[in-house]
Structure formats: C-alpha cells, structure tokens
C-alpha cells in the first residue's frame, strides 16, 4: 500500500506549503519590498543624515540588520499562522491531518516552509538595503546561523498562533500587540548602549534583542550582546517551541473536536 | 479475519452533548455497510473518530485491527473519506489537490498524476482538472470529494452522505462507481438519509440513534420485521370483517366497502395462501389481491421514534444491541 518511504509524504506537504507562497508573489514578496524601501528611505536617508553614527556605523547601516530580522520573522510567523489558520477555517487542513503523516512530519513541513519564506524575505531586504548603503558580511557563519534560527523560531511560534487563533482578527492582534512591541524595543532602531542601565537590563529579557544583535554581528561584526550565548539561547528556545508544536498537533489542539 | 471496523463502547462528549453513547459496531472486510440514523444521531462523529478529526472520550475503535490513536498512521493510510461537509484545499487546482492527497499517502510522483487523472475521469470531471474547488458546481464538488477519497486506493471507503442534494444522474453514477469498488474488495461505509439507497446498495445496515446502535441487520431482515398488509377484494362483501381466528399472524383486519385489509406479522406472501383458503372456506369469492410490504423507511421511522418516545432504553437490556426484542416491540406498537 505504501509505495514510498516516509519522505514522499513529508516532501509533498513541504512542497505544497512552499508553492502556496511562491505562486502568490504579489501577496507574499511584494509587500515587504515596498515597506522596506519606505523604511530605508525615511529612516535611513531622510532622518539618518541627522542621526549621529552609532558605534561607528552610519544609522542606515546600523538599521539594516534590524530590518532584515524584522522582515524575516514577521513573514515566517505570518506564513505559518495564516496557512494553518486558513486551513482550519476552511477545514481543508483536514486533508493533511487525516493523512498518514506523523505529527512531527506535519509540524516540520509547516515550520520549514514558513522559515524559508522568512529567509527569502530577509535576503530581499538585505539586497534592497544594499542599494541604499554599501554593506558587507563580516561574520558569514553567524549571519547564516542567526537567520536560520530566528526564522525557524518565528515559524514555530506561527504554528502556535495558527492553532490557538479563533478568528482572523486574533492573527492581527498577535502581530500588532506582541510582535511589534518586541521588535520596537528589541534594538532594531537603536543601540542598547544609549539606554539608561536599568532599561538596558530589562531589554536583555527581550528575545528580540538577541536576534537583532546576532544578525547585526553577522553583517557588521558588532553586537551589544555575546553572539555565542545569543545563538545558544535562541536555538534552545526554537527546539522548545517546535516540541510544543508537535505536542499540540498530537493532542489535536485547535484541530480536532 | 480482522474486522474492517470494530468499535467497543465508544463514547464522545462535546461539552455537555453526548454524541456517542457506548456505541458497539463492527463492519466486516469487503462489506457494503450502511449507517442510518436521524440528524444528530452521531454518524459523522463516529466517522470522524476513525480518521482523527474527533478525539473519543471513551471506548475503543480499531480499523483493520489497528487502534485509531496508537496506530493512527496505519489507520489513516487505509481510509478514504468523502466527508459530509466540503473541506477541500482552495489554493490549488483540483488535479493538484488530488496529487497532494496521494502524495500524503506516500504515492510516488509519476503514479500521483496517473491516479489523479484516473480518479477525475472516473467521477466525470476530468475537463475541470485545472479549475479551483470554489469554481465547481455543487454536484461537481460532491464528485470531487469522491475522487479525493479514492485517489489513495483505500481499503475502507467512507462516504458521509455522498448523495445529499445531488441529481438523479449523479446518484446513479456514484452508485456505479462505489459498487464496482466494492466488487473489487473495498469495504464501504455509507451514511445516507435516502433509505431506498441503503436498501438497494448495502449488505447490512446499522440504525443508530442518540449515539447508540439500535439494530444491525440486512435490509431484507429489517423489512421482514415489519407487518405486511394483504388487501383482498371480495365480490359480495359481508357487513363486517370476518373473524380469522385460525391465522395466528393476523394482527388486524379492516373492511372498507368491498376491500378487506388484513395486517399480518412477517411476510405477507407466506400468509396469503392460507388467508385466501380461510376466506374461501367461509364462502367469500375473491376478485383481486394485493400485498404491500412495510418499507424500510417505515421500519426506520419506527425504530428511531421508538427510541425517542419511550424511556431511556435500559442499559443491560440493550447490551450489544437491542436486536432481540425489536420485532416484538415493533409488532406490538400501534401504527
Ligand atoms: N463540533 C461539535 N461541537 C459540538 N457538538 C457537536 C459537534 N459536532 C456534532 N455535535 C453534536 O453531536 C451530535 C451528533 O452529531 P453528528 O454530526 O455526529 O450527527 P449525524 O448523525 O452525522 O447527523 P446528520 O445526519 O445531521 O449529519 C449532535 O447533537 C450534534 O449537535
Ligand atoms: Mg452527519
């Protein structure tokens, strides 16, 4: 009855999930392009000339890694949460969950496809940024590692979001009230060095700080925090959230009556 | 041989609603099995526990000997489901939807295309293969659900009201496809509100109500349980209905003009010759005779209303099912 090993099932779902956003580039890739052209123009070019250098980098250059992270994680999160929620809403996720995929295969397909969308968007933003300011890659290993981990982490969080949401507004709420504040206070737009020490300490509780600084370390070779610690903490967090995803699928949370 | 489906004391609560209340049901391999019951009886809930869309609250169910929770992958691999509600992927053209479904079941890439095309041709919507689900007509959507259910070549095909709201032509087409699959060895579980459909297709039917099985039997056995009515036309009708004491099957007699209607338990065909003899012995001349059977539909209504109207059926009496005392109860009830 089973003609192919496990991989055929898994790759079918992975491919389906990737096709879902690749075939709709106007909905998936164009919006972050436009947004980031605006960010770079306003914050980098127009305002940036009036902001002094941060740790020896022009403001636009300091900003670039933060915008890459912001684009990657919000797209990874949105992809996973939307795909799962839309599938639940229209019940076509039943096609997947009544099939003989293991719960781990289901989760990995959703997480990997969503993370890949996040990474593609991150690359697009970096390329756009390079049109505004010359940028190099000082620490390629860290850049790749952090981009992978942050995209996977937010894809995995998106799976949780897609499972717990009760209607479309909840997805917006998660984005606006959780993701955005974390990002804005996560050192995308400023260096922690400029904060009073109390706020600097509080900021260190924000996981976004480690992501932004990790990717910034990859691009610029500068970070407010230790990149190795950051990578270890984020990797642990990612594994934890993926495990939570798998447990939720196995329990049928949000998927079964 | 292991059973295709074996449910023991199956329970499902949705909050306060008890949808399955100790259901015991077994379906043999290769059977064409009908599941009948009024709205809300728990048919869809039962089906959904098999494929993992509903988590049972208690009891056990196996599909081809595999537990639906512990061996969920084996179970899901063996089932093709055409659900009651449309739940089809809206992003992709339907041919790709079928290919995806086959892929989830581990079918190789080349084989997926072949199967998708074959299934679409079988249900007669091949020319719509590049259309999205939303743009199909209602009947075509039903057809697609069947195509999606069979594209994985399941050993157990479950059809939850596949003919609800479809035209006569499609209904006959569906029957033909399903019958052929059954002849080739596929076990079929069908729910329907068209009783004559079950009567015509199914080897056995279960009637369920309020989350429990009321009875299981062949359609013939069920209609046997009802009372038939023999109507005879008499040349010189008497003033009142003649007594027919010699015939123990007779439940009731009624005379209207020249027509005598005699209700008998069991098969009217078996009683008719003796009834005619008895009437002729009394000097009546018979000009015409007609035997009408109770339809399965009438039996169905009685069985399910009986459940509803009477007190809760007692726990121990029902046990495995309430079959043993049904005929007596049916016969005893006023029509
Ligand atoms: N998701 C759900 N949440 C709460 N109650 C439910 C849910 N699904 C079904 N029910 C209830 O469970 C009972 C059985 O419903 P089910 O859908 O299994 O019936 P059915 O026999 O398939 O009926 P129909 O012939 O109308 O399709 C009903 O009382 C129904 O209201
Ligand atoms: Mg139903």
Bound molecules: adenosine-5'-triphosphate, magnesium ion
Instruction: Tell me, rounded to a whole number, the average pLDDT of chain A.
Output: 89
What is the CA–CA distance across the termini of chain B?
Answer: 42 Å
Described by strand count, sense and barrel closure, the largest sheet of chain A is: none
Into how many domains do the coordinates of chain A divide?
1
Structural class of chain A: mainly alpha
* Counted beta strands of chain A: 0
| Residues in helix, % of chain A | over 70%
User: Level of helix content of chain B?
Assistant: 25-40%
Largest interface, C-beta closer than 8 angstroms, per-chain residues:
A-B, 31 and 38 residues
List the helices and strands of chain B in order. EEEHEEHEHHHEHEHEEHEEEHEHHH
Looking at how many chains there are and whether they match, the oligomeric state comes to heterodimer
Organism (chain A): Halalkalicoccus paucihalophilus
InterPro entries (chain A): ABC-2_transport_permease (IPR052522), ABC2_TM (IPR013525), ABC2_TM_bact-type (IPR047817), ABC_2_transport (IPR000412)
GO cellular component, one term (chain A): ATP-binding cassette (ABC) transporter complex
Subcellular location (chain A): Membrane
What report would you give on this structure?
The complex is a heterodimer of chains A (257) and B (335). By secondary structure, chain A is mainly alpha-helical. Chain A has one domain. Chain A has eleven helices and no strands. Chain A has helices at 6-22, 25-28, 30-47, 59-89, 93-97, 103-132, 140-164, 168-184, 197-203, 207-220, 227-251. The longest helix of chain A has 31 residues, at 59-89. The radius of gyration of chain A is 19 Å and the shape is globular. The model of chain A has no long low-confidence stretch (mean pLDDT 89). With 335 residues, chain B is an alpha/beta fold. Chain B has two domains: 3-223, Rossmann fold; 226-298, Alpha-Beta Plaits, CATH 3.30.70. Helix content of chain B is 37%, strand content 27%. Chain B has twelve helices and 14 strands. A six-stranded mixed β-sheet of chain B has the order 6-7-8-3-9-10, sandwiched between helices. In chain B, a hairpin with a 2-residue loop joins strand 9 and strand 10. In chain B, helix 3 (94-104) packs across helix 4 and helix 4 (109-122) crosses helix 5 (138-150). The longest helix of chain B is centred in the middle third of the chain and has 16 residues, at 168-183. Chain B is elongated and about 80 Å long. The relative contact order of chain B is 0.13. The chains are: A mainly alpha (257), B alpha/beta (335). At the A-B interface, helix 1 and helix 5 of A face helix 2 and helix 3 of B. The complex binds adenosine-5'-triphosphate and magnesium ion. Adenosine-5'-triphosphate (ATP) binds next to strand 2 and helix 1 of chain B. Residues 43-44, 84, 160 of chain B line the site of magnesium ion.
């Amino acid at each position: 009855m089973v003609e192919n090993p496990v991989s055929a099932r898994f790759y079918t779902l992975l491919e389906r999930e990737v096709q879902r956003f690749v075939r709709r580039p106007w909905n998936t890739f164009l919006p972050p392009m436009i947004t980031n052209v605006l960010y770079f123009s306003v914050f980098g070019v127009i305002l940036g000339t009036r902001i002094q250098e941060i740790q020896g980098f022009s403001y636009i250059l300091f900003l670039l890694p933060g915008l890459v992270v912001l684009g990657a994680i919000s797209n990874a999160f949105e992809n996973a949460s939307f795909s799962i929620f839309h599938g639940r809403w229209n019940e076509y996720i039943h096609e997947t969950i009544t099939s003989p995929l293991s719960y781990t295969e289901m989760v990995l397909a959703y997480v990997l496809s969503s993370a890949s969308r996040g990474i593609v968007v991150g690359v697009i933003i970096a390329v756009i940024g390079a049109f505004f300011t010359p940028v190099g890659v000082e620490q390629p290993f860290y850049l790749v590692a952090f981009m992978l981990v942050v995209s996977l982490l937010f894809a995995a969080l998106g799976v949780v979001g897609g499972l717990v949401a009760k209607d479309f507004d909840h997805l917006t709420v998660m984005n606006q009230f959780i993701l955005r504040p974390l990002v804005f206070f996560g050192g995308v737009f400023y260096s922690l060095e400029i904060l009073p020490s109390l706020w600097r300490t509080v900021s260190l509780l924000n996981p976004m700080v480690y992501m932004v600084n990790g990717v910034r370390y990859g691009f610029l070779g500068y970070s407010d925090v230790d990149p190795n610690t950051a990578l270890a903490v984020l990797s642990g967090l990612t594994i934890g959230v993926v495990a939570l995803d798998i447990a939720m699928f196995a329990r049928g949370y949000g998927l079964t009556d | 041989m292991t059973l295709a489906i074996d449910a023991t004391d199956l329970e499902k609560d949705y909050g306060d609603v008890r949808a399955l209340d100790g259901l015991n049901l077994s379906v043999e391999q290769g059977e064409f099995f009908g599941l009948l019951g009024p709205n809300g009886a728990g048919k869809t809930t039962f089906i959904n526990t098999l494929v993992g869309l509903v988590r049972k609250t208690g009891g056990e169910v196996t599909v081809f000997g595999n537990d639906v929770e512990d061996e969920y992958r084996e179970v899901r691999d063996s089932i093709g489901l055409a659900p009651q509600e449309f739940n089809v992927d809206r992003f992709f053209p339907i041919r790709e939807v079928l290919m995806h479904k086959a892929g989830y079941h581990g079918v190789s890439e080349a084989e997926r295309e072949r199967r998708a095309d074959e299934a679409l041709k079988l249900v007669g919507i091949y020319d719509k293969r590049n259309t999205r689900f939303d743009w199909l007509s209602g009947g075509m959507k039903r057809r697609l659900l069947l195509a999606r259910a069979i594209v994985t070549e399941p050993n157990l095909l479950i059809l939850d009201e596949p003919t609800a709201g479809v035209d006569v032509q499609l209904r006959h087409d569906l029957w033909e496809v399903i019958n052929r699959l059954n002849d080739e060895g596929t076990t079929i579980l069908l729910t329907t509100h068209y009783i004559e459909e079950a009567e015509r297709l199914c080897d056995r039917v279960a009637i369920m109500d309020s989350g429990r099985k009321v009875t299981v039997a062949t359609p013939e056995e069920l209609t046997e349980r009802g009372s038939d009515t023999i109507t005879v036309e008499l040349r010189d009708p008497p003033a009142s209905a003649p007594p027919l004491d010699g015939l123990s099957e007779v439940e009731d007699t009624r005379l209207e003009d020249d027509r005598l209607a005699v209700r008998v338990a069991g098969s009217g065909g078996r009683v008719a010759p003796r009834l005619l003899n008895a009437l002729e012995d009394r000097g009546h001349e018979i000009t015409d005779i007609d035997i009408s059977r109770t339809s399965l539909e009438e039996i169905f209504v009685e069985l399910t209303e009986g459940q509803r109207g009477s007190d809760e059926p007692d726990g121990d009496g029902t046990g495995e099912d309430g079959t043993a005392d049904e005929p007596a109860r049916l016969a005893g009830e006023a029509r």
